[in-house]
């Protein structure tokens, strides 16, 4: 699509200054107007999410996204329990310990700094397990986990029940792989858990973390795709990021009923 002539751009200038205003006069190029509308809708959605999180949190939202380690295990388990209503869909603490020990570089957590004294009774499930921002900080600020992604590598293009298992004797293996669980040579990153703390659902936190994760996996150059399993009601959630639904999965984990979702990493800049 070629850009509109300069005088048309001048005519449309108000649209640049007002997120909601789009000039769709007859002279305007239809494709350009559609693009403007889409961008405006996206900007509005981002602003809505931003304002929603500021309404929900009693402290400033300055997210810090970093890989997780075993020192975050208690928070990861607390978040998983809070986010997944169905216990059969939760990963066990032992599985998290295995994954955060064996391949922590495939995980990502979104944290926020919180001063407990300033919460005035507001509660969040991952507060009691949060680690101090710095030892001896006078205001006792802690880094609270709001969302996580935990994954392993798989050899196939989609996630199987074997990928979701863990070797029984994994502690004795010293990081060596077996036929179940993490496959170090695998080019598919299999997400086993995406969870957001319920109080901030619908505030754009999941979106922020998924986008950062896909970007990071793409930049790493160590994987060809990111795969996950989801129930029907979340298919469109993942499609918005570019995941494709490859159809029903044979995995029986947690009672089955999963869809194979796959995001092919482009390799070049995303
Ligand atoms: C699913 C989950 C991760 C989504 O995280 P979230 O932070 O609430 O979602 P976001 O606010 O980032 O949503 C981003 C967008 O997706 C939309 N969305 C949210 N849930 C959706 C759904 N089920 N289907 C389609 N779109 C959805 C939002 O409306 C939002 O749209 P917008 O950008 O136009 O405002 C979160 O609800 C959660 O932790 N659920 C429980 C655990 C779970 O089911 N994990 C996934 C296992 S596969």
UniProtKB/TrEMBL annotation:
Pfam families: Acetyltransf_10. One of its GO terms (cellular component) is cytoplasm. It comes from the Eukaryota. SUPFAM superfamilies: Acyl-CoA N-acyltransferases (Nat). The keyword RNA-binding does not apply. Residues 1-30 are annotated as: Disordered. PANTHER family: SEROTONIN N-ACETYLTRANSFERASE (PTHR10908). This is N-acetyltransferase domain-containing protein. It comes from Coniochaeta pulveracea.
């Amino acid at each position: 699509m070629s850009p509109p002539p300069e005088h048309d751009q001048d005519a449309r200038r108000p649209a640049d200054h007002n997120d909601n205003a789009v000039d769709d006069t007859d002279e305007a190029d239809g494709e350009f107007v559609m693009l403007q509308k889409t961008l405006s809708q996206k900007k509005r959605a981002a602003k809505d999410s931003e304002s929603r999180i500021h309404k929900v949190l009693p402290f400033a939202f300055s997210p810090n996204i970093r890989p997780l380690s075993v020192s975050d295990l208690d928070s990861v388990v607390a978040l998983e329990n809070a986010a997944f209503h169905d216990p059969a869909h939760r990963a066990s603490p032992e599985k998290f310990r295995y994954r955060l020990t064996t391949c922590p570089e495939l995980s990502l957590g979104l944290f926020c700094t919180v001063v407990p004294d300033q919460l005035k009774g507001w509660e969040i499930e991952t507060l009691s397990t949060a680690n101090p921002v710095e030892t001896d900080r006078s205001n006792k600020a802690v880094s609270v986990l709001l969302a996580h992604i935990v994954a392993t590598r798989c050899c196939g293009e989609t996630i199987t029940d074997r990928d979701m298992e863990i070797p029984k004797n994994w502690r004795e293996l010293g990081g060596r792989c077996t036929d179940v669980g993490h496959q170090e040579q695998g080019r598919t990153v299999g997400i086993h858990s995406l969870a957001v703390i319920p109080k901030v659902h619908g505030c754009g936190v999941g979106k922020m973390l998924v986008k950062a994760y896909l970007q990071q996996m793409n930049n790493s150059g160590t994987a060809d795709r990111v795969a996950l399993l989801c129930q029907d009601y979340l298919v469109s959630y993942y499609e918005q990021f570019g995941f494709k639904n490859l159809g029903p999965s044979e995995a029986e984990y947690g009672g089955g009923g999963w869809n194979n979702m796959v995001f092919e990493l482009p390799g070049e800049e995303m």
